[in-house]
Amino acid sequence: MENHHHRELSFLSSSGDFLHNNSIDPPIKEMDFFSSSPNKNNKEDDLDQHGSIIKEVSPLPTLLLTHHDPVNTGLNLMCSSAAVSKEENLENSETEMSILESELRRVQEENHKLRIMLEQITKSYSQLQAQLFITLQKQKPNHGQACPHDHPAEDSSHSSKLEEPTQDLIPFKKARVSIRARSEAPLISDGCQWRKYGQKMAKGNPCPRAYYRCTMAVGCPVRKQVQRCAEDKTILITTYEGNHNHPLPPAATAIAHTTSAAAAMLLSSSTSSTLRKESATGYLSNSFPYATMATSTLSASQPFPTITLDFTQNHNLSMHHNRVPLPLFFSHKLPPLLQLGQPPPSSMVESVSAAISSDPNFTTALAAAISSIIGPQRSGDGNNNLAGVVPGSPQLPQSCTTFSTN
DNA sequence: CGCGTTTGACCTGCGC
DNA sequence: GCGCAGGTCAAACGCG
Ligand SMILES: [Zn+2]
């Protein structure tokens, strides 16, 4: 593969188009899901430099309370009566400048805190999810291996050096998350490095299916399959499987969380093939923001439990097939698990969810923060490499994610 | 020469 | 047991 770098699509660089694409949208030529290149216009650029340093997290209130500070709007509101002398004007503008600068610093600091907080929350959430998964598994001890072969060496949690000790307890089953995206590019940029290890002609599809392995770390079990849709070749279907055993760049972490969330949902619903779509969408949309930009479907007809995130609908009110539109970004109703037709096993999850959802300010701030992470400017070269690596990105049950296009 | 891709062979699971 | 299909391996190949 030669010039992938220009041809990869990357979701992250869509600069919010996914969320606001209500008008006629021309076919997306390139999408950067996880562009990691520095974004010039993002005011958080400076934060990227030190954003990976996680110190103790400032408690939530500090972040929100800063808004009560006297805010300098930056508007020069001083009356410009002719009586004011030039010197006074100069002095005023100087003080104005210094005020502005201090204000800028304060905002930057606040942004930094927000970023740190977001990282912490993401991590905590993933840990919660892992615990929830474990609890669910304990609740149905003999419930099923969803996949026929879940014991290859790479699946064993003992062999992989996972960073989260709790992960060693997670029984692995393979679930897949399929993501459909419209793209002419042969690959999507997802923040990871991949190496092609095979290609096969799939039955019933003129387009070959390519197999990739994650090469960001030796022994990383994550694989992905890339295939074009038989009906519409502009649609690219990418399927992820497994969890990384190494730190991930933020973008890759995001998609890994989606995969994990989907896997947790699929697996926690046991092998029953009748998980309702509303449940799936509700769960996913609360689990991961990407899901809110897509429509999702569950499939039990495939050999592996698979969930499909469909980014091809463009939210232009034309929901075809049986696909279900997802709720808005970070919808405030957060009881995802209650919709799964199962008793919520973890009161922790509930309380956290309640705490988060009950605070609109927090929700808004979080949504904005996440938006800034998942929706930065498009990278120029479509580079699929890491920008800051998130230390100890949490991993979750074994899963696969598929990107596809409709 | 090293690294990544290509591609045919091989392995495995599944249905008949 | 046999054939098929999906998935993986690894030698050959090409590129920088
Ligand atoms: Zn990996």
Any overview of this molecule?
- There is one protein chain.
- With 406 residues, this protein is α+β, with helices and mostly antiparallel strands.
- Among the domains are: 97-131; 176-267 and 285-310, N-terminal domain of TfIIb.
- The chain is built from ten helices and nine strands.
- It has helices at 4-7, 17-20, 45-50, 60-65, 86-139, 250-268, 277-287, 289-292, 347-357, 360-374, and strands at 10-11, 176-182, 194-201, 208-214, 223-228, 235-241, 295-299, 306-310, 401-403.
- Strands 2, 3, 4, 5, 6, 7, 8 and 9 form an eight-stranded mixed β-sheet that branches.
- α5 runs parallel beside α6 and α5 (86-139) packs across α10 (360-374).
- Bound molecules: zinc ion.
- Residues 192, 214, 216-217, 220, 222, 244, 246 line the site of zinc ion.
Bound molecule types? zinc ion
Largest sheet: 8 strands, mixed
What is the alpha-carbon Rg in Å? Answer: 23 Å
Number of helices: 10
Instruction: Give me the secondary-structure category.
Output: alpha+beta
Helix content: 25-40%
What is the CA-CA span between the terminal residues?
24 Å
- Along the chain, the helix and strand elements come as HEHHHHEEEEEHHHEEHHE
Unreliable stretches covering 5 or more consecutive residues: 1-31, 34-84, 140-173, 270-281, 315-398
- Calculate the mean pLDDT score and round it: 55
The CATH class label of the domain at 176-267 and 285-310 is Mainly Beta
Question: What is the approximate shape?
Answer: elongated
Beta-strand residue percentage = 5-15%
CATH architecture identity of the domain at 176-267 and 285-310: Single Sheet
CATH topology of the domain at 176-267 and 285-310: N-terminal domain of TfIIb
Task: Please tally the β strands and state the result.
Answer: 9
Q: What is the CATH superfamily label of the domain at 176-267 and 285-310?
A: WRKY domain
